[in-house]
Amino acid sequence: MHTPKALAGLALAAALAAACTSGSTATPTPSASPVASAAPSLAAASAAASAAPSAAPSAAAPTATPNACAPANLALKTAGKLTIGTDNPAYPPYFAPSSPDPAPWQLGDPTNQQGFESAVAYAVAKQLGFTPDQVAWTVVPFDNSYQPGPKPFDFYIAQVSYTDARAKAVDMSDGYYFVAQSVVALKGNPLAKVTTISGLKNFKFGAQVGTTAYDTIKNTIQPSTKISVYNTNDAAIKALQAKQIDGLVVDLPTAFYVTAAQIVDSQGNALASIVGQFPSQPGPSAEHFSLVLAKNSPLTSCVNSAIQAITADGTLAQITQTWLADKASAPVFQP
User: What is the CATH number of the domain that holds 204?
Assistant: First the structure.
């Protein structure tokens, strides 16, 4: 039996022997001390430990992207209200009358959701998340809608055709209606029998200022007499009735309304006719109506998404069929 002191001596001797044996069998590495060689593995372990907590939350709980087109996130003229501008009078078939039309509206009532453009406006509003009672209308003259500067509306709808010049001053949405221009004349005027564009040149024409109707007279008809320009379509219609001009140029749906309801006798008989429509240009360059927004409006992309949605689900086609189905037939001018 060994005493504690003897046991201690044996343990020390064993430790020394183990150390000597280990030193004789290992290959020495003179360039690295035991402390230095251990440091990298400790640093790696520490880095892995510190990286793990920060990586886990991002994989487990991604941050949701806010819906920029949600009503609460839209930059509106009035919080909680979608303000839509249009011209006044509000002509059928784009707007339908109420009985009576509420002030200040004339000829048509944008607020009743009836008529092509009223129906389109409310369909876009619905896609943006607004109910009819959250829609407000404001009067803005047509040629003021696309002038540079601040706007009193969130978007504007009044048969505003897209042009590159207008798009420099305001944002213009994707098209919601592709349109042809047409000529209206009194039935007794020789112009009423013309069938070619070249045959139009010697007549006197008029149109509302700033419209693509005016551009059609200037660039397509190229008349030999000075073009008469009017501040409103009403004034141009009165000039036609007074025989101050031979022909009025307007978009085709408007031409149907002018001949069916505005230039008639006391019994409602038509005194004017649609002479013809100009050939449309298919493709992206085709004339189309756009909604108007302030330049660089944050609402523009949302409005375009709404138009795409009502096009894809058939809503726009149904609105067009309901309000403009009988407005498409008129002879096409030959060259």
Answer: 3.40.190.10
Residue 273 lies in a domain: yes
Are 275 and 154 in contact, with CB atoms under 8 Å apart? no
Return the bridge partners of 139, or none.
86
> Per-residue pLDDT tens for 127-153?
999 999 999 999 999 999 999 999 999
Per-residue pLDDT of 66-105, as tens digits, reads 788 999 999 999 999 999 999 999 999 999 999 999 999 9
- Cα separation, 181 vs 213, whole angstroms: 6
3-state secondary structure (DSSP) of residue 181: strand
Q: How far is CA 16 from the centre of its chain?
A: 88
Examine residue 12 and state whether it is found in any structural domain, yes or no. no
Could you tell me if 141 and 150 are in contact, meaning their C-beta atoms sit under 8 angstroms apart? no
Domain count within the chain: 2
CA–CA separation, 255 and 330 (whole Å) = 10
* Cβ-based neighbour number of residue 314 at 10 Å: 10
3-state secondary structure of 108: coil
Nearest-angstrom CA–CA distance, 194 and 198: 9
Enter the tokens of residue 223: 């008349």
Cβ contact 250:233 at 8 Å: yes
What is the pTM assigned to this prediction? 0.73
Residue 334 lies in a domain: no
Backbone φ, ψ for residue 87 (5° rounding): -80, 165
Q: Are residues 169 and 186 in the same domain?
A: no
Q: Are 291 and 156 in contact (CB under 8 A)?
A: yes
- Return the closest-CA partner of residue 254 out of 181, 174, 175, 189: 181
Beta 228-230 vs 205-208: how paired, if at all? parallel
Domain, as residue range, for 223:
181-277
**How many Å apart are CA 283 and CA 17, to the nearest integer?**
95
pLDDT in tens, 152-175: 999 999 999 999 999 999 999 999
CA quadruple 291, 297, 300, 303: dihedral sign: negative
